[in-house]
Specification:
It contains 7 helices and 17 strands. It is α+β, with helices and mostly antiparallel strands and 233 residues long. Strands 7, 8, 9, 10, 13, 14, 15, 16 and 17 form a 9-stranded mixed beta sheet that branches. The protein has a 4-stranded antiparallel beta sheet with strand order 3-2-5-6, with helices on one face. It is elongated, with a radius of gyration of 21 Å.
């Protein structure tokens, strides 16, 4: 259970003083009844409406976004547009951050949450949670490239975990890559080792959860509880 003013402050990304003003002005209801006390306790199952808008009362949220190009995977872009900026206003709340990063020019599945422990679990190298990508290349791959991915290639002094590489078109320039790491520019560097440049890169899945095909670039939606659990399966 959580104090109403604290809940409103967190979920609406406003100050506690502003939350108390909403309550004082009788603009907040819980389960259909107007509440006038800032210290009223409510929980995840309560229906809270503030200023005629229903509030997501869940302690943590898990959001799937289809990231477009040109957007930073960060909470603060230092002047650049971020994935947090793209969220609809009713999804924004304090503490949201992208769990893992995509390059500015990489598109696809980004998971946004305010649950630090959950994010740590899916990002931990020890968990080996697989991430799938599709890529468009400037040159075709051959069996040597595929075998190098599968063997766990070396990048300088760094030895990578085995990855899977599958061709998707006849001339072998469209591919699917599945990795269980997330080091800096990993996929681009893996191809560059073989003299191949990645022209387009899109993340399509995280764990067993696939990007919703109904989400257009820049759109987002909440994960269901089943989908959140599926990431670890």
């Amino acid at each position: 259970m959580e104090r109403l003013d604290k809940l409103l402050s967190s979920r609406l990304n406003i100050t506690r003083k502003q939350a108390k003003e909403l309550i004082k002005n009788e603009k907040v209801s819980v389960n259909g009844k107007t509440v006038k006390s800032a210290d009223f306790k409510c929980g995840d199952d309560d229906e809270v409406v503030a200023d005629s808008k229903r509030i997501n009362t869940s302690r943590f949220v898990y959001i799937m976004m289809n990231k477009p190009k040109g957007v930073i995977c960060a909470s603060d872009g230092k002047g650049d547009k971020t994935v947090i900026d793209l969220l609809p206003e009713d999804m924004k709340r304090k503490g949201l951050f992208p769990a893992g990063r995509l390059d500015k020019d990489t598109t696809g599945f980004v998971l946004i949450t305010d649950d630090g422990e959950f994010a740590h679990n899916i990002l931990s190298p020890k968990k080996h949670i697989e991430k799938a990508y599709t890529a468009l290349l400037d040159k075709p791959v051959n069996e040597n490239v595929i075998k190098d991915f599968e063997a766990g290639m070396s990048l300088g002094e760094e030895k990578l975990l085995p990855a899977r590489l599958k061709t998707l078109n006849e001339n072998n320039t469209e591919v699917e890559i599945i990795i269980s790491q997330g080091i800096y520019h990993q996929i681009k560097r893996m191809f560059l080792k073989h003299g191949i440049t990645v022209l387009e890169l899109k993340r399509t899945s995280l764990g067993s959860l696939t990007l919703d095909k109904n989400l257009k670039e820049g759109e987002s939606r909440y994960l269901t509880e089943e989908e959140s659990a599926k990431i670890h399966s």
